[in-house]
């Protein structure tokens, strides 16, 4: 079989890289020296090739090489549209699974290997999981220059068995000349870090953010052979951001190997200059922010009690300007409309930042990757993501910081229409409210519109380019005038000052925004699984009450349109299809029988937890525990998937029985 020249050169390159990795040349030199010492007779001047081959075979070198270079060909070759090259497969002796990847030899790659973890002392007493036993797991999520990766889940342990490799493309088209392979100097100018987020998933599927780390990868540019090993100490999050949670062993390697490596001194100088430049920009912004705040307090001393949030702490306890948490974010083809984006943000779980002991709310605004990987966050995380998505759709959107009833701090989103319409978006529920300002000077007899929104006060609004403090006499949302261009009502910050620290690439300390990922959940399969589990739970519950259970499959099927209609209404605020559903139910339920139905909505897929919640509703319990003549039960589950494997789960229990 003959290979085309480019295939032959690629094959040679792979073999050469594998031989270099095994240090075959060094081992051959050692064996050659030993053989000359031990086997060369005094009267012999040289060894033959056959003698050398026998010596190498006897010491197992040839067998080792053949094991490493185990090339596999697919029976059907499918070419991916994104790459002109066919996939090449090779096996690694450390892995039992076949690894396959598409490598474009004209591009530069950084191969990041995670070679295990240690000192995760919180799991020191964790017992070894038995085969097939469900246990808590660690998952490592990575983001680098618009590429996202996720490791295989590994059981939580003091020394978690991470063994994953991630092939990161270093040179992207966004740099301009995307056809040329990046050299060392070009890569040294790429300041984007590799953002690593460690997530723990417990046996119930609940996720916890363990650590968030920004890896500076450019040290590999100054290392010999373009390979370096790092020990990364992961720190905790929130109140534990100063406490180490564990260590990861990481190996970085450039593919193809660098023709010319930089000196470590050059790399260190570049990194030091970047840090110095970033520190100076942040210092100047802090000086400006202090001056702005002094001027704001001089307008009215009572402003000191308003929620004007200029800086916020991220999960690592680092203070960042709030404008850096927002950036226009395009969802590609994953979300079609702003209202669908609002629904997506709404189905991401809500969880306040954990705090040890009492003392009120713990502040923690998560970076976007940490929020998406954990799949849940606080109201600020939801508001920042929704504002970013709405900006991506071309709307003039702002995050609002203020309070709800009883003075509870809250964040929500506001959009300003070209006609002056102000719309509030509640990121936790997906609800939208039109704001109509109340005139406080009007006669008390005049009828004032009663606000439907839950917001009471507003201190400031911001997006990626603007920050405005509310300097109206009252900070009440009800009478607030949202003319953001009127500096007598809204005190703006300098857009240049915000740009200096919040614009993309302005400072190396800013985490880049990751792209959204498509859902990995199969909606039909998951719907069926949850439905089967609920049927079993209902049957067991009724059996404990001494009741038999008869399921009516046709009635269950007829509930589907109602669930689809509920989700459509949540997404679009338009109700549709209710007439057909009611007509179908009237036809299905015989005369003299009663029909009862109870729909409920969840954002998680745990059937047992959902069933326990349903039983707490007296209406639902009445259906599940229905007694009477000719009782027929029905249950229908419909899972609607969204990006990042978020989902809306609709469940409807129903029963029919003789009146």
From TrEMBL:
Residues 102-259 form the CEP76 C2 domain. Keywords: Cytoplasm, Cytoskeleton. The keyword Cytoplasm applies. Transmembrane segments: none annotated. Coiled coil: none annotated. It comes from the Eukaryota. Residues 10-69 form the CEP76 N-terminal domain. Pfam families: CEP76-C2, CEP76_C, CEP76_N, CEPT76_peptidase. InterPro entries: CEP76 (IPR052299), CEP76-C2 (IPR028926), CEP76_C (IPR056288), CEP76_N (IPR056289), CEPT76/DRC7_peptidase-like_dom (IPR056290), Papain-like_cys_pep_sf (IPR038765). It is found in: Cytoplasm, Cytoskeleton, Microtubule organizing center, Centrosome, Centriole. Residues 363-493 form the CEP76/DRC7 peptidase-like domain. Its main location: cytoplasm. Residues 520-657 form the Centrosomal protein of 76 kDa C-terminal domain. Belongs to the CEP76 family. Centrosomal protein involved in regulation of centriole duplication. Required to limit centriole duplication to once per cell cycle by preventing centriole reduplication. This is Centrosomal protein of 76 kDa. It comes from Ceratotherium simum simum. The lineage of its organism: Eukaryota, Metazoa, Chordata, Craniata, Vertebrata.
